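Lab notes, practical 5.
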Amino acid sequence: MDKKTKDLNLIMMYLNGWEEESRIEPGGKVLRAWKGYPFDVINALEKEKMIRQYDKSLIITKEGISRAEGLKHQYLKT
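Output from the prediction step:
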C-alpha cells in the first residue's frame, strides 16, 4: 500500500472526525469518524495502531491523532 494513500486517508479521517465521550474511560474523550474509506486503508491503519475499528465507525488513537496532526502540517502547510 502506498504511504501517501494511507497518510491522506488518515488526514481525512482526522478532519472529518468528531469528539465524543469515551465509552471505555469515564470522563474521557475520543475522536470518532465514519468508515467511509477503502477497507484496505482502514485495515492497514489499524495494523499500525493509528485507528480502532467498530461496526460503522472508527476511533483515531492518540498515536493516530499525533500522526494526523503532523501530516496535516506537512501536506496542508497549516
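Observations recorded by the TA: The beta strands are 18-21, 29-34, 51-53, 57-60. The mean pLDDT is 95.
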